[in-house]
Amino acid sequence: MSLERPVPEPGDPVVLMPASALVLGGDLGGTSTRIVIADHEGNVIGRGAAAGGNPTSHPASAAANFGQAIHQALDGIDPRLVSTAVIGMAGGPALSNPDIGARFEAAWSGAGLVCEPKYIGDLEVAFASGTPEPDGTVLIAGTGSNVGLVHDHALVRTVGGHGWLLGDDGSGFWLGREAMRSVLQSIDLREPLGVLGEAVVAATLTDPGIRVAAEREGYDNLRDELVRTVNNRPPVMLAELARTVVAAYDADDKTAQALVKRAAELLIETVSRLRTTSDNGPLVLAGSVAGESSPVGRLLRQNIHEHFDGEVLTARDGVGGATWLALGALDPALATRANHARLVS
């Protein structure tokens, strides 16, 4: 096997690297698992995808989906050539569970991979997908919300991310919960439900017969049916109502507009716990709620410069960010801006 010598910084030891060395990047989310194989020049040579690979939200199936995506990405590739792997996931702490950890290890070794995978948080991957800069701040607002401070491409501190019960202010869950609370308050006060309220009822009581019966029997029955239905589901499913809030916002519903405005304010407040006005590194925004197409994300971008200096960027392809970090772990000289642009575009 031929060897090439990367150009070291002054004083760095010389490391010989196989010319055929490959890297693996992974992005394991609640809805999808994505794996990329790239050569040491940043060219993607393999991709794989499967259903959700977050071991917290999918403890029974995450490892199997992880393995499926790896096998697909490695199709026609010798897994022994993969020298470095960086895998981002939101549910990383779940790997400390011996059973879940063993399943992930079995999926990894079962694919013939021999290098040691490095699991990192979704904040680091999101930041790397948005910028090649080594230092800055990242906000993820999707189902939950979390902010991280990044130094030298590594996460050094976080705020928020306390989960649906204790925090996640401004997140999709927060929007859904507050929308439901506004409906219940309107019912208690015998007020008209409005565009948002009617949409929340329809999205929650999906059986038309149950909904019509509850509405016909009066506000108290409708309230009881809503409360019963919500309490019989996993709490995090309230996040699904975030889409209802956005639709009502677009229909000029005043309650939805107030919730969207407050969500943006809460997210800015969360960032302010970590980032000061003197920080000038980039702020990367990630997640569906903070996205450019979301009204919350649009308000964030309009108002964030009133509070913080620095460039505001949007996270892009998470698995590309993880793959770029894997290149840097293989050899820092490979973590170039050109490779970054190639992998996250």
UniProtKB/TrEMBL annotation:
It holds the Pfam family BcrAD_BadFG. Keywords: Kinase, Transferase. InterPro entries: ATPase_BadF, ATPase_NBD, Euk-type_GlcNAc_Kinase. The keyword Acetylation does not apply. Residues 24-313 form the ATPase BadF/BadG/BcrA/BcrD type domain. One of its GO terms (molecular function) is kinase activity. This is N-acetylglucosamine kinase-like BadF-type ATPase.
